[in-house]
Design a protein that fits this description.
Layout: H1 12-27, H2 37-54, H3 63-75, H4 78-85, H5 91-104, H6 114-120, H7 125-131, H8 139-149, H9 153-161, H10 168-171, H11 177-192, H12 195-218, H13 223-242
Helix pairs in contact: 1-2, 1-3, 1-4, 2-5, 5-8, 7-8, 8-11, 11-13, 12-13
Length: 247
Amino acid sequence: MKSLFKPKPRTPSDIVRNTRDLLRFLQHAPDIKRDNDKVIELFKNLRELKTILYGNSEAEPVPEACSQLTQEFFNENTFRLLVQCLPKLNLEARKDATQVVANLQRQQVQSRLIASDYLEKNLDLMDILISGYENADMALHYGAMLRECIRHQIVAKYVLESPHMKKFFDYIQIPNFDIAADAAATFKELMTRHKSTVAEFLSKNYEWFFDEYNSKLLESSNYITRRQAVKVWCEFLAFISTIRILN
């Protein structure tokens, strides 16, 4: 006999907590198959989280639900778990996860971007995202996440000052056009998003930066690399003139 009582609908916080538990399970199950019940449940949760944040054809996002989701997501290390487990997800789940992470960078809770507060204490996650350009399967997903995280000035400053910065000159030359273009888009975001941070970076790194840009990108033997470099260069020059670096 069926129960007369319907199960209580899950709150956004419930879904995040369940997602976190499933990610922990996935993290410690190296040989788990993607048709495993828990993995399928995780995929459904990610789709549900995306729907809460973006809405669908039938309903717009509800601010209170988005706020609850955001608070719970950054309350514990759900972000870290999601980044670490992303390679174990299927393509559609990776896309959903990427969109969830992107949206959460813009969600305000009581007029605060709590994603920025979280990332300030977990900047090492950027190391994983940047290194994603070395993995053809993960590059576009991690790249999209990275660009959204760079919206936060503390993150952009960390990346600019990190050893990873020089790697972008190599990533933009990757033979895979889509990955190279994505790396170029991230590079442009880094160099044009936060004026004061970029000005400080260039004041300390002017010579090697432009030497690398000229020798590896503008003078590249690869036409596509040169075209990408010129495109970024034009936008960068327009930006750099506004911060009066070139006099």
